[in-house]
């Protein structure tokens, strides 16, 4: 029973590493993006939209988020949409792109194609061919669904209500600071926090390197054990030790595989929802580092998501240390 528990710890240690890497890679796609959160004088979406149209110096806006994916879905009481309300998230090189999420069918006068994520956002599934949809107050029939490269969301347009969770995402460029200051002055908002995502990415990246380093050290130690001729020489012992070395080397290279290869095998609906969730929740719920503009105040808040990642690393290290201990005592792993 004790041996089974030991094997289970080792198995969990490597499985949890993949979960930690998966969350990290989801976060890394925003390594060149930072967002600002309004603490007072919270603007409406209509006001921000006019800001972007009137202030041409703001070139680095990536997207505007109102809370999260779940909040957006709860506001969809009907199935009509307005193309002016569609915003694209996830690609820092594009600003409010609408061409990738729906386009008209030129063979049918009232036909239209929509993206799979947009279909799932509105109709809760992707089997929507034949359904009717309103774009710019005109009715169209959905005649096809294509897989989009960038997820889409729908934000309800209310010119009077302010959004408590609204954020503006800026893409990092040389003129970024000037553009942010211009945006702040135009909105008359002085109490604003900037979230620099690079800080938490660097911290998580360093943390995720620890298991890889330990595995590499363990591999070197196993090589030493194989060629340690003080041990009793036998073909069987050498075979077992070489097999152990090969296994550790394979695991080391597996841990360096791009985790997106694994995520590509997930079901579409689950992966789409997780992708939305990672965009709206991981940025705000992972390790957040705030730098206040008017006071150089920096503080760190560790919450549940980061605790899970660190716990994954801890379990992984426990499994590797266990391997060291068993080898040191010349016991079977």
Keywords:
333 residues; six-stranded antiparallel sheet; four-stranded mixed sheet
Task: Put the structure in a nutshell.
The chain is built from 10 helices and 12 strands.
What does this protein look like?
The protein is an alpha+beta fold. The protein folds into 2 domains: 2-31 and 198-328, no CATH class; 40-190, no CATH class. It is built from 10 helices and 12 strands. The chain has helices at residues 2-28, 45-54, 69-74, 116-123, 176-187, 197-226, 235-255, 260-263, 268-285, 304-328, and strands spanning 33-38, 61-66, 86-88, 102-105, 111-115, 132-135, 138-146, 152-154, 166-171, 192-196, 288-292, 298-301. The chain has a 6-stranded antiparallel β-sheet. A 4-stranded mixed β-sheet has the order 4-5-7-6. A two-stranded antiparallel ribbon has the order 3-8. A hairpin with a 2-residue loop joins β6 and β7 (138-146). α1 (2-28) packs across α10 and α6 packs parallel to α10. The radius of gyration is 25 Å and the shape is elongated.
